[in-house]
């Protein structure tokens, strides 16, 4: 029996490894082998805390896509979703962010819309973005708050509502007056200590003031939103009571304010103050609760949609907003990149620089304009005929500045481009991998019958947001001119330039 | 012709070659003798560019080896064959592949042709039929002979021998010496042999040179060397402990 | 006091030594690279090395991978059970294997098996003048000895890593599902859900880097051997030490860069 050859063993092993890799990739990769299937839709959220890239997108609990990208646009979160190609989403579908799973992962939930037949297209945007939490949850929360308020109101009424309370208060004030007089003498005797004490008390009362301030802020909001709230909270009376109570509180506050610093030290009417303390604590709790729930209430109170619908005069503004939106989204599509690229050639100890502008009017279409400074220049061959003998001389044309002007189109991970490369005709192929972090490029230009064309291969890897490292092999067909090189590139999208280009009148 | 002109070479602080001058004629056998550790191997490696001198020139056919880049050096090296002190056969290859190595590397000959040449060379060194053996299965003498077969596989013009007979029994020594002389005659080689076997040096050499303390202190025909008055040479020839060379 | 200074001095020296070695290895790498692109590969030699580095390492890699996956599964189970999240064991094993343990363990095993052998083999060739013989025959040893080993390692360590990843996950599956009776469906679903293509591919990129490191270090150490049999022993030890340290250090930076 012949033993298996080295090549066969190695080949078999690599084959097995590749099969396993293929199997694992297929199992793990939702869309198989890293191909990006499906289309992109976008939505703008006020807040996407906790939502991560690759989070699931679900309709009725069925996963239909993933979060592709999250970026900040005008202080809001622009979320790009990749939706499976066979799934369509109605234009009036509602999108929201929800939580599930034992680790509380956030996911994007889409509730299908009513109007079948009108679907969101590639790079289309959701119009119905649900800002509020579940309405059920909200109602429960509101109910709790109302209950808390009722308890406090009751407590407050007991303290200051009755005649006893009033007399207690006047007793306090009398005491305060006495105490002030007493204190005056103490102050003179014990000046420094007292100052500290007063300082402490002042800050304590400031805190109390803040509590009241936030309370009245809430009251204001609740008052404003009364109409809306009224529909939700049946017990309208609660709010009136609250109003009254708050008025009383205000009065008390004023009264207490006159006796300011010494309040804490008053121990004579221990009972009253204990009650008062408790009440204040409860108010604080409610304030906190409302503050926390403020967003929820606020959303109900300031429901923009309701406002626009009710107020017809605002509709025109709305229309113009839509116009602006369209303008902005057009500018969004029209992207411009500025880039610099430097290469160092090891075999020549020489450098080469590229500056280019890439204009991307559509997602898959590119125009590339650029300058190449090549201190080495270009090799030129001259044939001179002297005495019937052709003498060929090769020279380096050091007229350093060269031009790039190319048009390109991208198919999935492949970008084909052609046109002027370094002032000669040529073409290039870019292959993108690893979410576009890695770009492998092949370029061929400077075609000449007498010698091999200039071919160049290199890779470019994104290490930071705008910074790329690059390395490759230049002119590898021409043995006397080939060189390895390495370098870096900087590339960024120019917002200013983008603005200028889109707003300047462009002749049609 | 090979000329070594004013070669200096030190390893760290140790001076090995110190202003060495030597001329090697084409088509002749030049034997270099000297003490163990005296720098003979270092000298030989200078000739083939394995070691570059700190200063001085190594001129082979008019070109200075010391100033050559890798590519030029490789061209020049194709004129050379070298038999190393321990033969330096590739452990991972059998005898056949060892001898075939330079042929596969530098010629476009067909495999059948190459195997034919290998067989022929092994025949020439008196080792027919060992093609499939691994170097580890050979005795010291056999290894050196395979090494010689490999060194002459490409028909080089110049062959360097680094102590070809050291450590062999007298009969094997004689056999290898004869083999070298025969091969030299057959292909009209330029041979440079390093040896401290003074007897065979005087028998084989067209020219003998004595290396001592980094220089050639005496050179000439075997007769001239044999009759030299140089005390160092005399001591070396007689193998005596008495004399200017102190061993202990 | 003096002792302390001496200790610090020694520590500084060893760091300096390590840095210097790194520098020399990098230069060595550049010359290997220039030979790699300059002349056609010695395909036969590459295959031979692939067999040595890859095929012959399968067994140890399968063994280490499987048992690592098994032990991770077991440990993970005890940990996750504390908050009833046993279903995450599978994805923990899978993520751990693909991102870290697969590449690193494979690289360390290959270093121990093949990296040391490279140093020893080339070291022996060096001290017995076989490398000089290559030079003399106008055959560049970097092209004949180094490039095939480096290319083979860059190709085979990722291939072995795939095997290691797979066996690790299998081992984890066996322990988790078959022995500890974690629900199979959820176990697998969490793997599919939480492990991404990136995890696998980045792991393989790492593995390729490790292959480069271990072969370069092994070859460099062999290539610069001096001092007879003792020198060969020293070169081998240093090769394993430097390669292992470099693999672990570079692992951190590669991880920081990629994930
Ligand atoms: N590459 C080297 N590095 C350091 N020292 C060396 C090197 N090659 C030879 N030497 C030293 O040079 C001296 C001469 O060695 P060598 O030429 O091998 O002696 P021999 O005459 O026995 O062949 C020895 O002392 C040896 O230690
Ligand atoms: Mg010697």
Number of helices of chain C: 9
Name the shape of chain C in a single word: globular
Helix and strand content put the structural class of chain B at: alpha/beta
Which structural class should the secondary elements of chain C be placed in? mainly alpha
The SSE string of chain B, one letter per element, is EEEHEEHEHHHEHEHEEHH
Low-confidence stretches of chain C: none
Which regions of chain B contain 5 or more consecutive residues with pLDDT less than 50? none
Compute the number of helices of chain B.
Answer: 9
Bound molecules: adenosine-5'-diphosphate, magnesium ion
The count of β-strands of chain B is 10
Task: Describe the protein.
Chain A has helices spanning 6-28, 135-161, 163-189, 191-224, 226-232, 237-258, 270-301, 304-310, 313-333, 495-503; strands spanning 39-45, 56-59, 62-73, 76-83, 94-100, 105-111, 124-125, 128-129, 335-345, 350-362, 365-373, 378-386, 389-397, 401-411, 414-421, 424-433, 438-445, 454-462, 467-474, 483-493. Chain A has 508 residues and is α+β, with helices and mostly antiparallel strands. Among the domains of chain A are: 34-132; 334-503, Lipocalin (Beta Barrel), CATH 2.40.128. In chain A, helix 2 (135-161) packs across helix 6 (237-258), helix 2 (135-161) runs antiparallel to helix 7 and helix 4 (191-224) packs antiparallel against helix 6. Chain B has nine helices and ten strands. In chain B, the strands form two sheets. Chain B has a six-stranded mixed β-sheet, with helices on both faces. Chain B has a four-stranded antiparallel β-sheet with strand order 2-1-4-5, covered by helices on one side. Chain C contains nine helices and no strands. Chain C starts with a helix and ends with a helix. Chain C has one domain. By secondary structure, chain C is an all-alpha fold. The A-C interface holds A 6-7, 9-10, 13-14, 16-18, 20-21, 24-25, 27-29, 33-34, 54, 102, 434-435, 463, 473, 476, 484 and C 33-34, 37, 47-48, 50-51, 54-55, 58, 85, 155, 158-160, 162-163, 165-166, 169, 191-192, 195-201, 204, 257. Bound molecules: adenosine-5'-diphosphate (ADP) and magnesium ion (MG).
């Amino acid at each position: 029996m012949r033993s298996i050859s080295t090549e066969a063993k190695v080949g078999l092993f690599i084959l097995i490894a590749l099969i396993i890799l293929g199997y694992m990739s297929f199992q793990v990769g939702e869309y198989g082998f890293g191909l990006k299937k499906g289309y992109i839709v976008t939505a703008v959220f006020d807040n996407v805390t906790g939502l991560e890239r690759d989070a699931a997108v679900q309709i009725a609990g069925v996963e239909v896509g993933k979060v592709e990208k999250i970026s900040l646009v005008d202080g809001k979160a622009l979320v790009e979703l990749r939706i499976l190609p066979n799934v369509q989403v109605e234009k009036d579908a509602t999108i929201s962010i929800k939580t599930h799973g034992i680790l509380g992962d956030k996911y994007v939930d889409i509730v299908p819309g009513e109007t079948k037949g009108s679907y969101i297209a590639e790079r289309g945007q959701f119009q119905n973005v649900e800002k509020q939490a579940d309405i059920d949850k909200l109602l429960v929360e509101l109910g709790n708050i109302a209950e808390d308020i009722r308890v406090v109101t009751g407590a407050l009424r007991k303290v200051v509502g009755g005649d006893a309370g009033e007399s207690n208060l006047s007793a306090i004030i009398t005491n305060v007056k006495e105490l002030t007089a007493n204190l005056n003498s103490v102050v003179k005797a014990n000046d420094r200590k007292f100052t500290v004490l007063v300082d402490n008390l002042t800050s304590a009362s400031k805190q109390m003031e803040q509590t009241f301030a936030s309370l009245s802020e809430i009251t204001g909001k609740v008052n404003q939103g009364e109409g809306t709230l009224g529909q939700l909270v049946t017990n309208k009376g609660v709010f009136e009571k609250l109003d009254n109570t708050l008025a009383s509180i205000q009065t008390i506050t004023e009264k207490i304010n006159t006796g300011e610093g010494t309040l804490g030290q008053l121990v004579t009417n221990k009972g009253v103050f204990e009650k008062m303390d408790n009440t204040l604590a409860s108010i604080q709790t409610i304030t906190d609760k409302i503050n926390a729930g403020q967003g929820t209430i606020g959303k109900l109170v300031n429901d923009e949609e309701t406002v626009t619908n009710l107020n017809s005069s605002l509709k025109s503004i709305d229309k113009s907003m839509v116009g602006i939106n369209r303008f902005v989204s057009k500018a969004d599509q029209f992207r411009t990149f500025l880039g610099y690229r430097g290469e160092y050639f090891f075999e020549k100890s020489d450098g080469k620089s590229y500056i280019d502008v890439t204009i991307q009017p559509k997602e898959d279409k590119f125009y590339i304009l650029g300058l190449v400074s090549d201190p080495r220049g270009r090799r030129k061959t001259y044939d001179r005929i002297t005495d019937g003998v052709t003498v060929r001389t090769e020279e380096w044309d050091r007229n350093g500045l060269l031009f790039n002007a190319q048009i390109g189109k991208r198919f999935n991970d492949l970008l084909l481009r052609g046109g002027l490369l370094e002032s000669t005709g040529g073409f290039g192929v870019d292959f993108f991998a690893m979410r576009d972090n890695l770009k492998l490029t092949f370029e061929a230009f400077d075609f000449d019958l007498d010698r091999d064309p200039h071919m160049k291969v290199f890779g470019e890897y994104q290490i930071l947001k705008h910074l790329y490292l690059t390395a490759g092999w230049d002119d590898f067909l021409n043995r006397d001119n080939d060189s390895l090189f390495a370098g870096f590139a900087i590339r960024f999208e120019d917002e200013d330039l983008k603005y200028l280009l889109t707003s300047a009148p462009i002749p049609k | 012709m090979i000329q070594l002109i004013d070669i200096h070479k030190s390893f760290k602080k140790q001076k090995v070659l110190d202003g060495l001058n030597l001329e090697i004629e084409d088509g002749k056998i030049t034997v270099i003798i000297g003490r163990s550790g005296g720098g003979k191997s270092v000298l030989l490696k200078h000739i083939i560019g394995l070691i570059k001198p700190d200063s001085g020139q190594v001129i082979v056919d008019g070109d200075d080896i010391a100033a050559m880049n890798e590519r030029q050096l490789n061209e020049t090296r194709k004129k050379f064959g070298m038999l190393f002190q321990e033969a330096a056969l590739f452990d991972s290859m059998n005898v056949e592949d060892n001898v075939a190595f330079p042929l596969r590397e530098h010629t476009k000959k067909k495999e059948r042709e190459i195997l034919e040449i290998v067989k022929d060379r092994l025949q020439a060194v008196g080792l027919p039929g060992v093609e499939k053996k691994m170097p580890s299965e050979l005795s010291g003498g056999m290894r050196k002979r395979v090494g010689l077969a490999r060194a002459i596989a490409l028909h080089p013009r110049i062959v360097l021998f680094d102590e070809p007979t050291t450590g062999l029994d007298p009969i094997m020594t004689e056999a290898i010496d004869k083999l070298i002389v025969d091969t030299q005659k057959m292909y009209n080689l330029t041979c440079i042999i390093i040896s401290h076997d003074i007897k065979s040096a005087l028998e084989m050499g067209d020219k003998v040179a004595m290396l001592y303390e980094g220089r050639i202190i005496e050179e000439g025909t075997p007769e001239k060397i044999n009759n030299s008055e140089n005390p160092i040479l005399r001591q070396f020839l007689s193998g005596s402990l008495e004399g200017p060379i102190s061993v202990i | 006091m003096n002792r302390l200074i001496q200790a610090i001095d020694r520590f500084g020296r060893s760091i300096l030594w390590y840095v210097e070695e790194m520098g020399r290895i990098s230069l060595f790498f550049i010359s290997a690279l220039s030979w790699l692109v300059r002349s056609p590969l010695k395909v036969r030699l590459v295959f031979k090395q692939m067999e040595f580095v890859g095929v012959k390492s399968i067994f140890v890699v399968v063994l280490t991978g499987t048992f690592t996956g098994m032990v991770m599964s077991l440990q993970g189970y005890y940990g996750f059970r504390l908050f009833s999240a046993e279903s995450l064991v599978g994805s923990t094993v899978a993520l751990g294997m693909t991102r870290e343990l697969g590449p690193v363990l494979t690289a360390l095993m290959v270093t121990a098996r093949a990296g040391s052998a490279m140093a020893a083999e080339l070291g022996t060739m060096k001290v017995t003048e076989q490398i000089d013989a290559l030079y003399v025959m106008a055959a560049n040893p970097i092209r004949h000895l180094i490039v095939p080993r480096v290319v083979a390692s860059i190709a085979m360590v990722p291939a072995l890593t795939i095997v290691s990843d797979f066996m690790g996950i299998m081992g984890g599956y066996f322990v988790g599902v078959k022995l500890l009776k974690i629900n199979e469906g959820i176990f697998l679903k969490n793997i599919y859900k939480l492990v991404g293509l990136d995890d696998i591919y980045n792991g393989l990129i790492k593995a390729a880097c490790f292959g480069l490191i271990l072969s370069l270090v092994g070859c460099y150490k062999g290539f610069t051997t001096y001092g007879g049999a003792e020198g060969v022993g020293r070169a081998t030890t240093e090769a394993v030490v430097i390669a292992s340290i470099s693999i672990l250090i570079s692992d951190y930076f590669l991880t920081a860069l990629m994930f």
